[in-house]
Amino acid sequence: MQPLPYAPPPPPHQPVKKGTPFLHCLAGASVWYVAFVVAFVIISIKFGFTLGNLVPALLIGAAIWGVTSTAMWLILLKARIRPWLLIFVSIPVYLVVWIVLNGLLGAIAAVFMHVRG
Question: Does residue 94 contact residue 68 with C-beta atoms inside 8 Å?
């Protein structure tokens, strides 16, 4: 049997997937979620607080993580970037989401404190 004198035809053209997958956005933002929880634990231990507030910190961090991942995914629907770059892209998104959520929670707490008298 002799080898073919020509190369096989290229595979049919497949459209390139656009947009960054949501799981990549979750992974990129998870780095900052873990950093948030680790910082909370370190601060609690250093200043002698108990870790009784760890569950609320985990829940608040999870809310910020979920909103940040969704926001990044919506921003990157048209662009596809490498997964490791998402760690750096998520920094400003994470900070903005953190500030907005803290502002909203602070405003809600102020309203309740005002209503209670």
Answer: yes
pTM equals 0.69
User: Measured between alpha carbons, how far is 92 from 102 in angstroms, rounded to an integer?
Assistant: 15
DSSP states of 62-79: HHHHHHHHHHHHHHTSS-
Residues 6+ apart with CB under 8 A from 32: 65, 68, 87, 90, 91, 94
Instruction: Report residue 111: phi and psi, to 5°.
Output: -65, -45
Residues 103 and 64: their CA atoms lie apart, in Å, by 13
- The string of pLDDT tens digits covering residues 57-79 is 788 888 889 998 999 899 888 88
Residue 16 has pLDDT above 70, yes or no: no
Residue of 92, 2, 115, 49 lying closest to 107 (CA atoms): 115
